[in-house]
């Protein structure tokens, strides 16, 4: 089959690789019909994530048609499914508590060593996201092997087009969980750092959960415009002092809840950010963290900070004093995708949530490398690239 | 008469986590006819009843299902079993071990007989986990590293070091018992077969 493979920093290629097969009883093989490039794929593209190997197949936002099932799968051939990016067993202690991304068994035993050394305990497996997360082949391919297919994938009713449900795989539940973790109360003002897909879905979700106001922060005008369409007020941090603006826009109180949807590659020319970049390039620190510092500083006393943004390693200059003195609550984590799927699919079917606005580019899988380059270089216009393995070039838009 | 606090031994932590260089000797006290002076120990929580876990383990011949470095465990009659285990550089090592303690649903212990390629002894304990979370499985292994410290370094290079193996074998046992399969990132049968070698 054809698949998008990683070969090094800014070097991804569509190669011919072996077709996937049923390896374990609970597996299913999916023929991919739509697969997106995620903002977190850019962390791989930029070489920020360790334990990648040349030839690794990327992609963790995908859906398709079931073409083969193992003896323990509950799926049937021909069903259309969206697959969560987290690989979770469904039967361990954490899965039984619906903490799917903390699954004990999603990672192969050998790969658990790296995660255990880095984080103290191993996490769930992830598709197409380095060997620290299991070395699973991803879904930017014609076919993919889906482990624990009786637990993860959600079956999509006939007649619902891919573009409407594809983002159930990661970014929609991630934005939703971010808003849920902000514990929004009536009358709340919620500030969201980053208007990438997760930030935009967090804006949408925050309003659905009863936020009175949402303030969205970014520096890409087009992304701020999208946030505005959902009713958010906006701050362009290139033109505005964000902390000062947030306080002035909340009568000096600060936002009740702050959501950091930026993460480890925060942009912007800030003193701490430049310092972080020096540390990253000399391997004395790994994450660039301006947005979370600002969120903690701006947040009102006793407020909530929710951090869907991906961080991988260590930071310094974390404002622990502000965090403690103001009595903030921080809630974070990889998304428990499986927990949110039935509710969010319903919300889509009922027309309460529409995610199709996000897709700016549809391309054949063969053009995936170009898709990465565009997404990386033109973040203002390119909000989401969806790859369609079956698509012919004349349909690209 | 009050209790003299200074007399209380603060030893709730398992001996395998001790900083004492003599911890192997302390662990040996809990094993009948102990063999070996390197100590490895690990506990894993498995969301299944302890009798079920004990039963799977006690049928020793199926240990290779989750112990990737064990090729075969063959019953020789009575309480004796022949172990064939992968060693670095494509070699195998063998020994005969006797089950020295067997309490259904609770403990299995063993000790290798004389002239074992790798002298070893150990026990695996099954205890109810608190809060109804299934079973704590604790494996404790004493062994003599082949050819001393050099052998240990070489074994580690080839990932056949007992400390690494025990940790990974327990994870695989948990996966097999909780999910019915052993997790793998392989996406073809050929890749899976290569992993098992």
Notes on the structure:
The complex is a heterodimer of chains A (397) and B (197). Chain A has 13 helices and 18 strands. Chain A has 397 residues and is an alpha/beta fold. Chain A folds into two domains: 2-170 and 335-395, Medium-chain alcohol dehydrogenases, catalytic domain (Quinone Oxidoreductase, Chain A, domain 1); 172-332, Rossmann fold (3-Layer(aba) Sandwich), CATH 3.40.50. The two termini of chain A are 24 Å apart. Chain B is of the alpha+beta class and 197 residues long. Chain B has one domain: Alpha-D-Glucose-1,6-Bisphosphate, Chain A, domain 4 (2-Layer Sandwich), CATH 3.30.530. In chain B, 26% of the residues lie in helices and 29% in strands. In chain B, a hairpin with a 5-residue loop joins strand 3 and strand 4. The interface between A and B is medium-sized, with 36 and 28 residues.
> How far is the N terminus from the C terminus of chain B?
64 Å
The unreliable regions of chain A are: 266-271, 281-286
CATH superfamily of the largest domain in chain A: Medium-chain alcohol dehydrogenases, catalytic domain
Mean pLDDT of chain B: 88
The second-level CATH architecture of the largest domain in chain A is Alpha-Beta Complex
CATH H-level superfamily of chain B: START domain
Radius of gyration of chain A: 20 Å
User: Order of strands side by side in the largest beta sheet of chain B?
Assistant: 1-7-6-5-4-3-2
What's the count of strands of chain A? 18
The share of residues in helices of chain B is 25-40%
Computed Rg of chain B: 18 Å
Q: How much beta of chain A, percentage-wise? A: 15-25%
Average pLDDT of chain A, rounded to a whole number, is 92
**Helix content, binned percent of chain A:** 25-40%
Distance from N terminus to C terminus of chain A (CA atoms, Å) equals: 24 Å
Overall strand count of chain B: 7
Characterize the biggest β-sheet of chain B.
7 strands, antiparallel
Major β-sheet profile of chain A: 7 strands, mixed
Total helical elements of chain B: 5
Q: Which chains make the largest contact? A: A-B, 36 and 28 residues
> What is the count of distinct domains of chain B?
1
């Amino acid at each position: 089959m054809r698949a998008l493979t990683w070969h090094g920093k800014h070097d991804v290629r569509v190669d011919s690789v072996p077709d996937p097969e049923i390896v374990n009883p609970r597996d299913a093989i999916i023929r991919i019909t739509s697969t997106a490039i995620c903002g977190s794929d850019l962390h791989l593209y930029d070489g920020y994530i360790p334990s990648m190997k040349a030839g690794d197949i990327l992609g963790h936002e995908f859906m398709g048609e079931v073409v083969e099932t193992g003896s323990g799968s509950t799926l049937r051939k021909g069903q259309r499914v969206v697959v969560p990016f987290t690989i979770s067993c469904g039967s361990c202690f954490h899965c039984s508590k619906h903490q799917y991304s903390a699954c004990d068994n999603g990672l192969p035993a050998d790969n658990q060593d790296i995660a255990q050394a880095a984080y103290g305990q191993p996490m769930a497996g992830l598709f197409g996201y380095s060997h620290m997360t299991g070395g699973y082949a991803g879904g930017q391919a014609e076919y993919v092997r889906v482990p624990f297919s009786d637990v993860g994938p959600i079956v999509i009713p006939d007649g619902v087009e891919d573009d409407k449900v594809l983002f159930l795989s990661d970014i929609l539940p991630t934005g939703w969980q971010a808003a849920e973790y902000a514990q929004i109360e009536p009358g709340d003002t919620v500030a969201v750092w980053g208007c990438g897909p997760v930030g935009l879905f967090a804006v949408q979700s925050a309003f659905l959960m009863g936020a009175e106001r949402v303030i969205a922060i970014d520096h890409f005008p087009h992304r701020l415009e999208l946030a505005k369409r959902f009713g958010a007020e906006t701050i362009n941090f290139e033109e505005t002092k964000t902390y000062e603006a947030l306080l002035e826009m909340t009568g000096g109180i600060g936002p009740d809840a702050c959501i950091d949807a930026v993460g480890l590659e925060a942009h912007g020319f800030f003193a701490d950010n430049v310092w972080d970049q020096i540390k990253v390039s000399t391997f004395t620190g790994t994450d660039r963290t301006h947005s979370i510092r600002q969120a903690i500083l701006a947040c009102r006393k006793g407020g909530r900070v929710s951090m869907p943004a991906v961080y991988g390693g260590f930071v310094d200059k974390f404002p622990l004093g502000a965090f403690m003195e103001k009595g903030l609550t921080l809630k974070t984590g990889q998304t428990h995708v499986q927990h949110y799927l039935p509710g969010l699919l319903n919300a889509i079917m009922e027309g309460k949530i529409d995610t199709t606005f996000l897709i700016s580019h549809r391309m054949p899988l063969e053009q995936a490398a170009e898709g990465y380059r565009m997404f990386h270089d033109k973040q203002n216009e390119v909000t989401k690239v969806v790859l369609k393995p079956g698509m012919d070039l004349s349909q690209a838009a | 008469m009050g209790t003299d606090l200074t007399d209380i031994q603060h030893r709730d932590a398992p001996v395998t986590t001790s900083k004492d260089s003599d911890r192997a000797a302390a662990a040996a006290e809990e094993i009948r006819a102990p063999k070996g002076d390197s100590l490895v120990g690990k506990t894993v929580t498995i969301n299944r009843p302890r009798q079920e876990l004990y039963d799977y383990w006690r049928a020793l011949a199926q240990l290779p299902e989750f112990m990737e470095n064990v090729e075969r465990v063959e019953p020789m009659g009575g309480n004796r079993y022949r172990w064939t285990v992968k060693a670095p550089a494509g070699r195998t090592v063998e020994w005969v071990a006797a089950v020295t303690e067997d309490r259904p649903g609770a403990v299995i212990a063993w000790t290798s007989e004389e002239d074992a390629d790798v002298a070893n002894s150990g026990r695996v304990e099954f205890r109810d986990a608190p809060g109804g979370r299934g079973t704590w499985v604790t494996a404790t292994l004493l062994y003599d590293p082949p050819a001393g410290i050099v052998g240990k370094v070489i074994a580690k290079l080839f990932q056949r070091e007992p400390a690494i193996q025990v940790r990974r074998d327990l994870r695989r046992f948990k996966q097999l018992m909780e999910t019915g399969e052993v997790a793998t990132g392989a996406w073809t049968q050929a890749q899976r077969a290569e992993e098992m070698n």
